[in-house]
Amino acid sequence: MKPNEQKPNFDWDTLARAARRAPSPEAPPVPYALATCVRALAHDQRSAEGLLSSWCLRAAFASIAIALILPFALHSNSDAALAANSEIESQINELVFAP
Amino acid sequence: MPPPEEDDLAPLAARASSGDEAAARELVERLHPLLWRIVHAHLPRRTDAGDLIQEVLVKMFTRLPQFRGDSAFTHWVSRIAVTTCLDRLKHERRRPELRRADLNEHESQVFEQLIHGTAQPDALDAVASRDLATHLLDLLPSEDRALLRWLDLDGDSIADIAARTGLGESAIKMRASRARQKLRAQVEALRAKGLL
């Protein structure tokens, strides 16, 4: 019998039950850059600036976004934080978008 | 790692929201395994899991002041993670088809056993079954794919999925049933074309 004449008997439930026996992939540790940046940005704007100027050079754009938004989120009422945020943003723009 | 305890995380989130460095760090570290699991399960092709986790964390931190404690904190964060993943997946077209050549030897063997109806779950290669199931789920739209992965592969409860998605329990059951029908129809269509 040709394959296309054979009535398929696909059984998703059996496949899913077998698949559930596979070991779960283990989560990796928190990436160092992320943990460091979150810690710094949550606490100390100046060290955050220092970190960012070295870190953003090798980070993807999505990684930079967290650095821009976190200070705003965590210190949304702080004028100093907003000013620092603006400064960080302009530094990143220079580093990332400068020709 | 066990799931984060609800009672520990809501106070942590409150402290992080007020600028507590240690709390923000601990929150990220405690949530990372959960976020990694969600993101890893729904990772769009050609996307880095780390980037997506960071996107989820950015959203979480920016929305922390909006967390009112109406639901468990991990459910609240899971919902952000799921929505983020599904938004990304919407931009990704489902795979139009799957061919036998796309399967490795072990996956192909599992498929043969399934098609011939002789397979018992315990007799099938578990890892190959999981990989084959993942290939097949790629044939479905992103929301169907997520639902079947949670229910049938991860073994999540309907109550958990309801909390994560905001859908009602009966809607989840109905959607899952339709998704399974769609999957069977897709596989049968590919078999009929001689591709699988």
Give the overall pLDDT of chain B as a whole number: 85
Question: What CATH first level of the largest domain in chain B would be assigned?
Answer: Mainly Alpha
Taking the sheet with the most strands of chain A, its summary is:
none
Tell me the CATH topology of the largest domain in chain B. Arc Repressor Mutant, subunit A
Question: What's the tally of helices of chain B?
Answer: 9
Approximately how much helix is present in the residues of chain B?
A: 55-70%
Helix content of chain A: 55-70%
Assembly of the depicted chains: heterodimer
- Unreliable parts of chain B: none
Briefly summarize what is shown.
The complex is a heterodimer of chains A (99) and B (196). Chain A is mostly helical.
Structure in words:
The complex is a heterodimer of chains A (99) and B (196). With 99 residues, chain A is mainly α. Chain A has a domain at 31-99. Chain A has five helices and no strands. The N and C termini of chain A lie far apart (65 Å). Chain B folds into two domains: 6-90, Rna Polymerase Sigma Factor, Chain: A; 100-192, Winged helix-like DNA-binding domain superfamily/Winged helix DNA-binding domain (Arc Repressor Mutant, subunit A, Orthogonal Bundle). In chain B, 68% of the residues lie in helices and 0% in strands. Chain B has helices at 6-17, 21-41, 49-63, 73-90, 105-115, 126-137, 142-153, 158-165, 169-192. Chain B starts with 5 loop residues before the first helix and ends with a helix. At the A-B interface, helix 1, helix 2 and helix 4 of A face helix 2, helix 3, helix 5, helix 6 and helix 7 of B.
Q: What are the main properties of this structure?
A:
heterodimer, A: 99 residues, mainly alpha, 5 helices, 65% helix, 0% strand, elongated, disordered N terminus, B: 196 residues, Rna Polymerase Sigma Factor, Chain: A, Arc Repressor Mutant, subunit A, 2 domains, 9 helices, 68% helix
Element layout with pairings:
The complex is a heterodimer of chains A (99) and B (196).
Chain A: H1 12-19, H2 32-43, H3 45-55, H4 61-74, H5 79-97
Helix pairs in contact in A: 2-3, 2-4, 3-5, 4-5
Chain B: H1 6-17, H2 21-41, H3 49-63, H4 73-90, H5 105-115, H6 126-137, H7 142-153, H8 158-165, H9 169-192
Helix pairs in contact in B: 1-2, 2-3, 2-4, 3-4, 4-8, 5-6, 6-7, 7-9
